[in-house]
Amino acid sequence: MTTPYTEQFEAFSANGGGEGPSWLPALRKKAFERFHALGFPTTRDEDWHFTSVTPIAEKTFKSLKPAATTLTLSDLEPHLVDAEWNRLVFVNGRLEPALSQYGSLPADVQLAPLSELLREEPAWVETHLGSLAGFDKAAFTAMNTAFMQDGVVLRVPTGEVVDVPIHILHVTDEKAQGGAIHPRLLIVAEALAQVMLVESFVGLDSASYLVNAVAEVVVGNGARVDHYKVQRESRDAYHVGTTQVVQGRDSIYHSFSYAAGGSLSRTNVYTKLAGTGGEARLNGLYVLDGAQHADHQTFVEHIAESCASRELYCGVLDGQSHGVFNGKVFVDPQAQKTDGKQTNKALLLSPQARVDTKPQLEIFADDVKCTHGATVGRIDEMALFYLKSRGIGAESARALLTYAFAAEALETIEIDALRLDLERQVFERFTHSQLV
């Protein structure tokens, strides 16, 4: 199934994909060979048991050629969250400097396109790129490494605190039809640094395309990274996103994933607590209807002692949609005094909607406190009756209860502007769905 991409890779390598520092073409070649050997995952693979990528594997998505965009800031306004934030805007995988602004960051904070850093600091990029996101067993990560076009590098030096969120906005329009986009993100927060990053993936048209994104995040000793991802692709699009994180001593990594777009989407968040006293918070909300399919996979590795992890993923499903949550917590024999809690909740609004949930604990230490749980159900009829008895119409009551369920996950967002924006989107979606 990967054979059609061989010709693409050869053409890509000959027409600019082979450019860059001497080590980069070799990395791409190795990654493509691994992608070709692995092939696309199937439901026989345990991690993909509930998600078939046949709709992706049966198509051949082509690399998009650079093209000037006619989009303006007014076109993007509904997706900017806050127009004052520093931002990098990519349209169909290509950086658009005219739509971006990132000159007001502290002088020692480095936010730049990956292509720029490959020219200016190739040795530093070589040290980090691919160091976390291994592709030996991950076909989509291998594919991204082979075909990655551009991306973002964010480096926050020791002790620097970036108070204003940074926004990376990936936009697709009708020109993305039949194309593949492979963005790459590299975040390095050095010791005691703090930064907040919002990644948005937005489809402005009904095009069918593939976004295959990979992020690598290094959280140094005492550092904190708040990483929010908003996935609102075209309803005919496919989205696969993988985030690999390593955390140092007393570090905090806070992740939030919002998935509402795409025909088929998969979000992987993997973090390794490698330093004593680290903390990982992985939260998310998926809102589906029609025939949408969304899969969230998390893997928290407790390697060092006295670390904590908290996970809360909520899903609201209507129509014939299908949600998947597979969360695994691994506790190494050296990771004594681990404190882990994992919760997955799903609300089914339709008899045809379904959820597969698989929380897992794998513990090899004896002094730990770990719990996990999953609940799947429908709207509480008693609560619905109570609201109706207070004069609230049946449809409005259902919308309010649905929104209240989703709000539990949304309340974990610590950026006020983003939380309010997503609350508005969720409320409007539920209200609309109850009225149409």
Mind explaining what this structure looks like?
By secondary structure, the chain is α/β, with parallel strands linked by helices. It folds into two domains: about 5-275, no CATH class; about 380-435, no CATH class. The chain is about 25% helix and about 40% strand. The chain has ten helices and 21 strands. The chain has helices at about 5-15, 25-40, 55, 75, 115-120, 120-130, 140-145, 380-390, 395-410, 415-435; strands at about 60-65, 85-90, 95, 110-115, 150-155, 165-170, 180, 185-190, 195-205, 210-220, 225-230, 240-245, 250-260, 265-275, 280-290, 295-300, 310-315, 320-330, 340-350, 355-365, 370-375. The strands form two sheets. Strands 1, 4, 5, 7, 8, 10, 12, 14, 16, 18 and 20 form an eleven-stranded mixed beta sheet that branches. The two termini are about 40 Å apart. The model has no long low-confidence stretch (mean pLDDT about 95).
